[in-house]
């Protein structure tokens, strides 16, 4: 399938979708957003990453704030950083691209900036992989690897963009388009560990109770209900935790 330009959806929405489908709907369909310390710091980190344009460090050229898109997957957005690594002698020319003003061929390598300490976050890996899919479609070269950079620890996590991650990312893009097409916000299915990380927890009303209830009280009850042997632990729509 090839999407029209007008139908492209934000790359960053994939991260929300993988974390919680309801969160993706609240942010992107209902435009609900609540700034907490984590999101403010996260925005600052992203703004810094987008600021500087291009620079060179040895055999690495760094481009910030590149616009990406994939008509095949219906996604678009701005990257934090795309590095271009000079191909080593003997590497096939077809695995790199030509850059203006410099010799040699260069392999694109997306780097996504995240707040906090280095850790494994599947939703972040999907967002990074989506950037790689866009780069591959736009530049016509393979992007086998990228990295997540964690601002608090100043460390990178290298991400191997393997077939499984690519299939997950492609399916996430399909699900995102379904969400935007249907425009139905999923019901809340609170999960204590996930929801307490979510900046929207104070705004995400527990619809399934059918009555007003403080979020804190709701989480206590959801936690109790999701104990061993209780069917309430099931996720809606097969959603993953982060
Ligand atoms: S509070 Fe929980 S259910 Fe609500 S949007 Fe956030 S993660 Fe999803």
TrEMBL record:
Signal peptide: none annotated. Pfam families: Cas_Cas4. InterPro entries: Cas4_exonuclease, CRISPR-assoc_prot_Cas4, Dna2/Cas4_DUF83, PDDEXK-like_dom_sf. GO terms for biological process: defense response to virus. Keywords: Antiviral defense, Exonuclease, Hydrolase, Iron, Iron-sulfur, Manganese, Metal-binding, Nuclease. GO terms for molecular function: exonuclease activity; iron-sulfur cluster binding; metal ion binding. Mg(2+) or Mn(2+) required for ssDNA cleavage activity. It is an enzyme of class 3 (hydrolase). Its EC number is 3.1.12.1. Residues 223-242 are annotated as: Disordered. Residues 108-205 form the DUF83 domain. Belongs to the CRISPR-associated exonuclease Cas4 family. CRISPR (clustered regularly interspaced short palindromic repeat) is an adaptive immune system that provides protection against mobile genetic elements (viruses, transposable elements and conjugative plasmids). CRISPR clusters contain sequences complementary to antecedent mobile elements and target invading nucleic acids. CRISPR clusters are transcribed and processed into CRISPR RNA (crRNA). This is CRISPR-associated exonuclease Cas4. It comes from candidate division WOR-3 bacterium. The lineage of its organism: Bacteria, Bacteria division WOR-3. The gene is cas4.
């Amino acid at each position: 399938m090839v999407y029209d330009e007008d139908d492209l959806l934000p790359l960053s929405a994939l991260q929300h979708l993988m974390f919680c489908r309801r969160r993706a709907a609240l942010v992107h369909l209902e435009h609900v957003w609540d700034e907490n310390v984590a999101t403010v710091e996260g925005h600052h980190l992203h703004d810094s990453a987008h600021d500087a344009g291009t620079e060179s460090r040895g055999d690495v050229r760094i481009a910030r704030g590149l616009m990406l898109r994939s008509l095949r997957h219906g996604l678009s957005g701005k990257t934090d950083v795309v590095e271009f690594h000079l191909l080593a002698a003997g590497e096939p020319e077809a695995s790199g691209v030509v850059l203006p003003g410099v010799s040699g061929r260069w392999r694109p390598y997306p780097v996504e900036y995240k707040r906090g300490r280095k850790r494994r976050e599947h939703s972040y890996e999907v967002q990074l992989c989506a950037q790689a899919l866009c780069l591959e479609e736009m530049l016509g070269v393979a992007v086998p690897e990228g990295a997540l950079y964690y601002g608090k620890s100043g460390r990178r996590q290298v991400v191997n963009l393997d077939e499984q991650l690519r299939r997950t990312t492609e399916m996430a893009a399909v699900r995102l388009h379904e969400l935007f097409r249907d425009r139905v916000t999923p019901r809340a299915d609170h999960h204590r560990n996930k929801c307490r990380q979510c900046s929207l927890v104070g705004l995400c009303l527990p619809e399934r109770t059918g009555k007003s209830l403080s979020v804190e009280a709701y989480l206590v009850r959801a936690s109790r209900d999701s104990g061993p042997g209780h069917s309430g632990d099931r996720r809606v729509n097969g959603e993953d935790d982060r």
